[in-house]
Design a protein that fits this description.
This protein has 207 residues and is α/β, with parallel strands linked by helices. Helices cover 54% and strands 13% of the residues. The protein has a 5-stranded parallel sheet, sandwiched between helices. Bound molecules: thymidine-5'-phosphate (TMP).
């Protein structure tokens, strides 16, 4: 059986984690070996970088520093987690990947998309997901689901920032529809999970 790389994307608060866990358990129930992971993180080095990135105290971080730190965590993640898992024929399920950088640092912060793509090419060696599931939802609804007192550095951004990020995601998906499943995430968890599974079955050759 061949491995597959499946990524969930979307702005904060859309319910990615719930869907990731549901899919993880569903695939495990069908005897597929699955590695569930997240970005930034997934490795000890990546988790250390994650703490720096999300620390609400680090308000002075420049967009360039931010983009390079996400890319650094990603380089570690690809070589230590994603490639070895795919080579074993297993499935990698990841909470975020390169599109998060294009959407947040590119569309959100306004960094040059071409340069971001180049930095990320260095980090990934050109590895792309087999499927990206974009959970889409109005910004006010998504942000309303986050706990106010416990927001990390990115989650403290305003609605305009998240509007740009959301639009960025939708643009990325519409430029390459074959590799994306875009779902209206403002629906019941079970309904969404069924839509996710339907497409994943096709990607994994389970139907
Ligand atoms: P999360 O694990 O709660 O999704 O937190 C990760 C945060 O980092 C989230 O706000 C999105 C942001 N992020 C970027 O800005 N760029 C990236 O490349 C990645 C992977 C995440």
């Amino acid at each position: 059986m061949r491995g597959a790389f499946i990524v969930f994307e979307g702005i904060d608060g859309v319910g990615k984690t719930t869907q990731l866990f549901t899919l993880f358990h569903e695939l495990r129930g069908r005897s597929r070996k699955v590695v569930l992971t997240r970005e930034p993180g997934g490795t000890p080095v990546g988790e250390a970088i994650r703490r720096v990135l999300l620390d609400a105290e680090n308000q002075e971080m420049t967009p360039e520093t931010e983009a390079l730190l996400y890319a650094a965590a990603r380089a570690q993640f690809v070589s230590k987690v994603v490639r070895p898992t795919l080579e074993r024929g297993e499935v990698v399920l990841s909470d975020r990947f390169v599109d998060s950088s294009l959407a947040y640092q590119g569309y959100g912060r306004g960094l040059d998309l071409e340069k971001l793509a180049q930095v990320n090419m260095l980090a990934t060696g050109g590895l792309r997901p087999d499927l990206t599931i974009l959970l889409d939802m109005p910004v006010v609804t998504a942000l309303g689901r986050l706990e106010v007192g416990r927001r990390d550095r990115l989650e403290l951004e305003d609605t305009d920032f998240y509007d740009r990020v959301r639009r960025g995601y939708r643009r990325l998906a519409s430029a390459d529809p074959g590799r994306y499943l875009v779902l209206d995430a403002d629906r019941e968890v079970e309904v969404l999970a069924a839509a996710v599974m339907e497409r994943v079955e096709v990607v994994l050759g389970l139907v």
